[in-house]
Amino acid sequence: MQDLDFETIAARLAAYSFPAGIDGVVGIASGGIVPAALVAQRLGVGLKIVAVNYRDETNEPRFSEPRALAPAPDLKTWRRVLLVDDVYVSGKSWHAARALLPAEVEVLPFVMKGKVDFALIRDIEGCVRWPWRVYN
User: Fold this and answer.
1) CATH number for the 2-129 domain, one of 3.30.70.20, 3.40.50.1970, 3.40.50.2000, 3.40.50.2020?
2) Residues with Cβ < 8 Å from 48, sequence gap 6 or more?
3) Is 97 in contact with 105 (CB distance < 8 Å)?
């Protein structure tokens, strides 16, 4: 597991070219909450949370597929959003979260690390130790 310090993440976010016209950020709980807050602050837009998960605190699956753990947020007038998570590996959590959001909203994926169009980190292989998480 590779350590990634907050200063490096903040510098990468400051230099990142986000897509234009983003009305808000939706973070996928629980791993995407801090990344989504950082992105929303960087873009100066609102933040909502969608609670979708299938792993426990030790990253072990607790369900066979991701489940909604709370009602989806009301996006009101948002028409183009970034759906943010910490990582994108299989895409299961991201797709489950997307399915909870209104179909008429354009939803773009943004992750701290992964293989999607909008990813902050593409140059690190393997797992990352995020500075906002507690590890055993």
Assistant:
1) 3.40.50.2020
2) 24, 25, 26, 27, 73, 74, 75
3) no
Residues facing residue 61 across a β-bridge: 55
Alpha-carbon distances, residue 39 vs 46, 53, 59, 121, 135 (angstroms): 10, 21, 24, 14, 23
- Give tens-digit pLDDT for 2-45: 888 999 999 999 999 999 999 999 999 888 999 999 999 999 99
Omega before 64 cis (within 30°)? no
Q: How far apart are CA 22 and CA 83, in angstroms?
A: 11
Q: What is the full DSSP assignment across 43-112?
A: HT-EEEEEEEE-B-TTS-BSSSS-EE-SPPPP-TT--EEEEEEEEESSSHHHHHHHHHS-TTSEEEEEEE
**pLDDT at residue 61 above 70?**
no
